[in-house]
Amino acid sequence: MKNISCMLSAIALLGIFSLPVTATTDDASMIEAGKKVSLNKTKGNCLACHMIVGGDMPGNIGPPLIAMKARFPDLAKLRAQIADPREINPNSIMPPFGAHGILTDAEIDQVAAYIHSL
Description:
By secondary structure, the protein is mainly α.
């Protein structure tokens, strides 16, 4: 009985420790996909207006995309800003990527994950 209890405990611990690895892998792939969309000139094209570390020829119309977790602790608010910035600021010059169909919902999720990681 003691051996079974030890085995079950070990399995439970292994399961707990394996969860973050899966989440990290999923997060990493989401972030990488978001980076590709963000830097794609025919999709997100964030560099047209924003400075992003590692980006070539950034624009300076928008704020630099640094310390984003401090600026947007809530990922949902960052996503909403990307999807339709007019909701927060009706005079925003940032394109409403979701409302105008520039990006799909999945792409907006990816971009938000990437930008949030900066």
